[in-house]
Amino acid sequence: MANKFPDNFLWGGAIAANQAEGAYNEDGRGLVQTDVTTGGTKNSPRYTTYIDKDGKPGKVASMGHAGVIPEGATFAVLEDHYYPNHKAVDFYHRYKEDIKLFAEMGYSVFRLSISWARIFPNGNDETPNQAGLDFYRSVFEECRKYNIEPLVSIWHFDTPLNLEQNYGGWSNRKLIDYYEKFARTIFNEYKGLVKYWLTFNEINNTVMFLDMLSVIAGHEATDEEYQVAYQQLHHQFVASARAVQAAKEIDPNYQLGCMICGITNYPATCDPADILATEHAWERNLFYCGDVQVKGKYPTYAKRLWKERNVTLDIQEGDLEDLAKGTVDMYTFSYYMSALVTTHKVDDKVGGNFSMGARNEYLTYSEWGWAEDPTGLQYFLEKIYDRYQVPLMVVENGLGAQDVVGEDGVVHDDYRINYHRNHVNAMAKAIDNGVDLIAYTTWGCIDIVSAGTGEMRKRYGFIYVDMDDEGKGTLERTPKDSFHWYKKVIASNGADVD
Ligand code: P53
């Protein structure tokens, strides 16, 4: 039976400013963390670079947005390193060409993020940078020309570097006010051009990344690190809730969403201890954020989570009221893979950046160690919808793979088509089971810089970009086979996935 999607279902793709735009120091843009972050690979981390207090250059393993540099050091761009995000794929200058290609695929939605540092270069400037405001206005107008609905992430791993360097980043409560001012500025500026907003990309990663530190940096996170992360997350929750309230004040038609890194957790064995550990992993890594942002309050199990890590949250007067008042209208998430949870010793660990834990013998893994699991997407959709009962959006999904340009100049990416076909089918099944799913934006609709590894070779796009890991290439855009496949899927509203 052919898949059935709702009539007004939104089909499209997604990118993030720092991974696509480049033009890192043009038109008054300030620096962000990825501008001082080198490229890495599957097996070696990206590094955040700095000059220490004695003037010596140094680097520290980073996750793009979480590199912690030594006391007294200053983030710095070093001469003998390559920074892939500086140029990225030059969306900043080529957005008209790119949006035209998206329109050709039939997009009705395009997810992108607004770079805070283009609007407020230092994060807390008195007045916004007009050139930054103009750029996004022009991008949104270009979308509207083709009846493409922009879906805008307000923050996608790119806090202005000044706020990281001189304020301690999200550990500092002041960031709530700076973020709120940024959000209000763009809500006012783009009224009538944008309807859908996401407050923080993969907000659960603020804490979940700590579980993964042992993989990228060979370091088990300490209670102090959890204390810092939970406090930062609290500030982000309040900032998100304030932004939601501001948005509704400015335009009651605005639709706001949370954005969660959606990893489906399964128990590795039927040992009851594993079943419970899995449920607790859902609470810690997924529900904690969704519950605060959709239901408007910290869940009861939060006390246990804080106690396990000796965390004492500084919650100030008005914060809990803000959380209650600033709940989101929709739950949006990225979905790439599932993971296994176990209390037993694991011999066969899955490698690759960010994915970890035991190998699932029923699944296949990408070159970067991510488990391909479309059933896990159906499971996630059904479980999350049952819990929250608000419209859902899959705002990232895709396969990072190395592409080979054929002799005919085209990438024949059946592997990517298969991946998306399976996930589109899984969404259709969840919809058939009653889930109110309203949008699907595939990740990196055009090839962009990988967030995790900084590589270009880890490609997700349906449009090939001629650019390599060293920054060599013409930046020319060429549709892959998947481009034509997706066009057909959209034209048939998800019915024809062959
Ligand atoms: P890359 C880890 C696990 C799941 C999603 O990731 C993740 C990450 C962080 O890398 O992030 C999202 O480029 C993120 C995007 C990112 C995309 O997944 O490492 O929102 O910015 O590019 C894919 O392969």
UniProtKB/TrEMBL annotation:
Belongs to the glycosyl hydrolase 1 family. The lineage of its organism: Bacteria, Bacillati, Bacillota, Bacilli, Lactobacillales. Keywords: Glycosidase, Hydrolase. This is Glycoside hydrolase family 1 protein. It is an enzyme of class 3 (hydrolase). GO terms for molecular function: hydrolase activity, acting on glycosyl bonds. It comes from the Bacteria. Its EC number is 3.2.1.-. SUPFAM superfamilies: (Trans)glycosidases. InterPro entries: GH, GH_1_N_CS, Glyco_hydro_1. Transmembrane segments: none annotated.
